[in-house]
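Key result, reporting period 2: structure in, sequence out.
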């Protein structure tokens, strides 16, 4: 069976998680978010747990930890038909690592202006239980502070506070061009205008997916 391996890249808050969920549903492949995986392990006293200090500062977690988490996840049976990867690669060495273990079919780059990024990050709220993402203005829950999906409390991510956002965006800017060039040269990069509302961005991505799976 033909595999569908998709990577979604873009700045923090671009909408990678939001759109990856939809891609995952549309293609029937798992959504793999390295940020989500790290947050799940954050409180454990394992090597993954050590990632916490890097995340709290807005720095990238060391490659050694990331590769272990990613390689382990990609070996699971549910990736047989493919996957949609969100949050990896973050730099060129990670892109090269990924290339050694998987063939990537499409890289969707969500292009979002800085002013929109800041509004999205500061208004983001996530469910402490199921991880569903909301936004105070752009995707509000039915009841304030409560997850529409499972009824648990909504929280602001620690790293969505202003000082940490600054550092995360700095790290992103330092690394973004080489990754884009890397995938552009391979002919798999597809740029999408991520400034529009969630539905419009999804419509643009759907067109790319339909071309790809037809
Ligand atoms: P990322 O995974 O790239 O960090 P998210 O998918 O978590 O980004 O989106 C960041 C925040 O912006 C969330 O609160 C989400 O609900 C909201 N959001 C996502 N896409 C859009 C969009 N196109 N327009 C407005 N808000 C959006
Ligand atoms: P995200 O949920 O994608 O915004 O990621 C949250 C944080 O997790 C980042 O700021 C990094 O500290 C860490 N992280 C996620 N993915 C990676 C990665 N591929 N490499 C290094 N650090 C990562």
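The corresponding designed sequence is given below.
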């Amino acid at each position: 069976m033909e595999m569908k391996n998709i990577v979604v890249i873009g700045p923090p808050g671009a909408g990678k998680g939001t759109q990856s969920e939809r891609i995952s549903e549309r293609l029937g492949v798992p959504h793999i978010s390295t940020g989500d995986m790290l947050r799940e392990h954050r409180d454990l006293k394992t090597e993954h747990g050590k990632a916490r200090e890097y995340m709290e500062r807005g720095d990238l977690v060391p490659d050694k930890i990331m590769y272990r988490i990613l390689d382990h996840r990609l070996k699971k049976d549910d990736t047989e038909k493919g996957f949609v990867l969100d949050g990896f690669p973050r730099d060129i060495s990670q892109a090269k690592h990924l290339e050694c273990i998987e063939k990537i079919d499409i890289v969707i780059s969500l292009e979002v202006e800085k002013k929109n990024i800041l509004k999205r990050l500061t208004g983001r709220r996530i469910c402490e239980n199921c991880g569903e993402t909301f936004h105070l203005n752009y995707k509000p829950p039915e009841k304030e502070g409560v997850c529409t999906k499972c009824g648990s409390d909504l929280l602001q991510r620690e790293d969505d506070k202003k000082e940490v956002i600054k550092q995360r965006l700095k790290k992103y800017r330092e690394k973004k061009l080489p990754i884009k060039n890397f995938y552009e040269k391979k002919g798999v990069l597809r740029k999408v205008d991520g400034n529009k509302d969630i539905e419009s961005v999804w419509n643009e991505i759907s067109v790319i997916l339909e071309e790809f799976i037809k």
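The chain is about 45% helix and 15% strand. The CA atoms of residues 34 and 88 lie 6 Å apart. This case is discussed further under Risks and Mitigation.
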